[in-house]
Amino acid sequence: MTVTQETTPQETAPQGGGCPVAGVFPFSGSSYRGPAPAYGSLRAEQPVVKVPTAGGVDAWLVTRYEDVRRLSADPRLSRAQACGEGAPRVGGTMHTTPEMIISLDAPEHSRLRKLVAGAFTMRRVERMRENVQRVTDELLDDMEAKTAAGDGGGVVDLVQQLAVPLPLTVIGELLGVPAKDLRDFEQWARAFATVDDRAGGEESLHALGKLSEYIVGLVADKRAQPTDDMLSELIAARDEGDRLSEAELVTFGFTLIGAGFDTTANQLANSVLALLADHRDQWDLLVEDTSRIPRAVEELLRHVNLFATDTSGFPRIAAEDVEVGGVTIPKGDAVLLSLASANRDPEVFDDPDRLDLGRERNPHISFGHGMHYCLGKHLGRMEMEVAIEGLVRRFPDLRLAVPESELPWHEGEINHTLTSLPVVRGS
């Protein structure tokens, strides 16, 4: 996953005058706690506004919930044109290749989605819950042993102990990666999830090549000898005689690793950090009653900001003139939809900047909306539920082992990514 290099922020006024924007997009001030402060003013005064970006191309930024939701499902905004040759380079956004499902428009997107959707149904995901619980319990058993032994003062890195290995193991099992290959697979997948313009050194690119080579071989093995895993199911998928090609299967494997591993790991780590650092009272509510966890996960998905750019990271291009919020976006212009801003819209969410794990009305769009909504949303939710339930049940007195200001973050990623989260038991 790559992200364009940011330029030096400067004072800039968006087209149309009015509310000034401090710096180019992505704006400064974004964190896991929430989107940059500029979004509140933009929602109120200029909800659809043209802003300069770090890539040197101006783009239309949409910040209100209803507008973001509507445009997310508008076929006139093209993902394919944003990924094609000669497409404008919008700084701070993810570079996806044209063949990835997130890069396609209808009818190509509809064809692929129809072929793979059966592997991600809620019923199929629920059948996986027992296995996800097993993996989580094993990881937490190891965590409990480490904290009890007191080695290193009983400090455990929750990123390395749970947030990364849980989704990575689940994705490995979904793809049918043999147990003997999981260690190598883990190393290559982590490299794939962290390669970007500033961190893409030779070692990382070598690992990326090894992962690509491995997935090609895995697809060939599963075609020859199918097993009970999602990759075998995708190989066998048919729709009126249509099927996924070899290239599509390999590309989908990469997509599954990036979306199903990296984003889940980051969301889990950031959510636990939010609870331990700022909202201990909310953590204690979950300790008191774990039946609150499903609703809590929805609120954490809304409130905890995953995207470092405050958007989904995927720009679109207007294939024709599009009117929204009283503004006409001309054909050919780039468009950015801020999911983080939409999730803080006071017209939709009461007291939107407050984390309320008991929030009843919560129509967040953290998984997107429309034809590009996240296929793995049921799996991501379920992994979050199982992991957080295990933590609050087995480690009710968990706390940060270092001041929050000392926590290391990975720079240059599309997501807010903790490189470690040291935690310890006790008051």
Written overview of the protein:
- This protein has one domain (11-425): Cytochrome p450, CATH 1.10.630.10.
- A hairpin with a 5-residue loop joins strand 3 (48-52) and strand 4.
- The protein is α+β, with helices and mostly antiparallel strands and 427 residues long.
- It has 15 helices and 14 strands.
- 45% of the residues lie in helices and 10% in strands.
- Helix 13 crosses helix 15.
- The strands form five sheets. The protein has a five-stranded mixed sheet. The protein has a three-stranded antiparallel sheet with strand order 6-14-11.
- It has helices at 38-45, 65-72, 80-83, 108-116, 122-149, 158-163, 165-175, 182-194, 202-224, 230-236, 246-277, 280-288, 293-303, 339-342, 377-394, and strands at 11-12, 21-22, 48-52, 58-62, 77-78, 156-157, 316-318, 322-324, 327-329, 334-337, 398-400, 409-410, 417-418, 422-425.
- The model is unreliable at 1-19 and 195-200 (pLDDT under 50).
- Pfam families: p450 (PF00067).
- Belongs to the cytochrome P450 family.
SSE topology sketch:
Layout: E1 11-12, E2 21-22, H1 38-45, E3 48-52, E4 58-62, H2 65-72, E5 77-78, H3 80-83, H4 108-116, H5 122-149, E6 156-157, H6 158-163, H7 165-175, H8 182-194, H9 202-224, H10 230-236, H11 246-277, H12 280-288, H13 293-303, E7 316-318, E8 322-324, E9 327-329, E10 334-337, H14 339-342, H15 377-394, E11 398-400, E12 409-410, E13 417-418, E14 422-425
Parallel strand pairs: 4-10
Antiparallel strand pairs: 1-2, 3-4, 5-7, 6-14, 7-10, 8-9, 11-14, 12-13
Helix pairs in contact: 5-7, 5-15, 7-8, 7-11, 8-9, 8-11, 9-11, 11-15, 13-15
